[in-house]
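Notebook entry, structure prediction.
Reason for the run: the old model in the group folder had no record of what sequence produced it. Starting over properly, with the input documented here first.
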Amino acid sequence: MWTRSELKTNAKKSLTGSYWMALLVTVITGILAGNSSFFSYRLNDRDFDRMAGMNWAWADWANFMDSVWVQLIIAAISLAALIGILFRIFFSTVIEAGEARWFSRNRESKPTPSLGQLFGLFRANTWLPTVGGMFWMYLWLWIWSLLPLLAFAGAGIALGLYLGLMNPLQLPASWTFGQHWSRQWNWQDRPGQFQDWEQQFGEFFTNNQSQIAIIAAVAVGTLLLAALLSIPWINRSYAYRQTRWILGDNPRIGYRRALRLSRQMMKGHKFDTFVLDLSFIGWYILGLLAFVIGIIFVAPYYRATQAELYAVLRRNAVSQGLATMEDFGFLAVSQTATGMTGQSDLAPALSAEGPDQPDGEPSDLPGTEPEKKPESEET
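New structure, fully documented this time:
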């Protein structure tokens, strides 16, 4: 069993002498594997105002879409979106596993790992297996995330049938949405499009009390149902959390095996891990107060704590017979041990230096301790 204080204490010790390198690793990972995009753009109403001839008829949109420049812009946006998706699948996911690999090696080895550990999985025989394992994890997370959307989709269909076929909304007769709204939209005179709305709200609510009550009830019920359906997705997100750490140790373990092993390792630990995450809220609030940039300095501490958690769960998995250290990328070798009688016997040991593994990867079998970073550290 593990405690939050124990994990955090060991995380602080593992960052002794390596914090700034850990910060650099998290910053690079955030840039290369973050969810934000340098190409993101939010369309707002000022963009419409900047466009020429905003007093268009709806039929003019056909001619607008036939423009060569518009088609080139659409093609460029589509190409950028495709490149972004491929970058996310084949590059960013490997960086995420590489970050986990770096923090695991940082707690296990006395010298601070080089930055090359972050990119160490971009090898001919580890790159695609890592991509496959991470893609398989995110695919299942995406499938589970669809559950809350079913509530909104069902509510939308139900309201559409109710309001469209059974009890349509009764709009005020003078509610014209502006002159000739059905044929043109004048963005330069937006207040005029909704003239006299404030005076007509009372009439609208009076004529549609039952429909509004149904819409409100469905909205509240949908939110509650979506929240309820989000629980399985949150549960799976914690169950799959160790996948990237497993792939960081051994990307060739197999994508199905990595996900299954992560579920087994997290069994009985998901709620405690959730509470562990909540314990960092104070740190992130302080980071927000420090002009937001303070969050960046909290990230190495959080990642190091997650590395400590993974080490404990990995040790538990081995002791419970769920996996062997070879499954985590450590190679078993034989070494000569001389007993009291002077006879030599072959004793099993673990070697961290196998093919396609960087030097200095220690074992973490029960009864063996990784090389300690500070002299006083206990793992």
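Summary: The first helix runs from residue 4 to 14.
The old model has been moved to the deprecated folder.
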